[in-house]
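Hey Z.,

So I finally got round to the fe (iii) ion thing we talked about over coffee. Here's the setup:
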Amino acid sequence: MKPTLFLFLALLLSACAPATATNTPTPFANTPTPSEPTATVSFITPIASATSTPHLGAETNALFTANNIQLGTPKCNGKPTPAQTEGPYYTPNTPERNSLLEPGITGQRLLVVGYVFDENCQLIPGARLDFWQTDSNGIYDNAGYHLRGHQYTDWEGRYFLETIYPGEYTGRTLHIHVKAQATSESDMLATQLYFPKISDNTRDPLFDSALVVRLETLGETLVAYFNFVLAK
Ligand code: FE
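And the result:
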């Protein structure tokens, strides 16, 4: 075939091509398949919810407001919160939540609230607090995550824990365990919070008066105030 004839036939064929092309998707290598938009949406959603900023938002305000809690002006003495043994009952990978209340848990409702500061008395947003405690009978859930959970302080360095007043167990006065960390690179502080006017406080060798919460009664609820000072 002569080149001119070949060119003519090629032009003729290409002129006829649109009828076919409108029915056949152009096979661009990067064109998404129909399933890809769905995959993109489900990809965006976890990213949005997994970012660390949601804990720092306005929902903490709603928790304080709904519970009539006013933390007042932050007060800080700059003294690092004393460390305590974490004991044998910590379970890692706790759920992130402000409330440890679940169906089946009984006891007196307790809110534990306060600020987290660094040693220069600067409030720390995004500090991680991981709480664990016994139920009202003094028993830890060592198989699951009842009465265990972590949370992050909000933009104002505040935390809000809803739980129950802990129970007693042999050899210890009433306490709530907590691991606290200013940032993911900071040292982890393991410590315990204690309650005022508990006779066993003086008999427990681990008890530290610097770790006693300020306790108030708010209707049926107890409110424990405690500010942490963490190394950054
Ligand atoms: Fe304990």
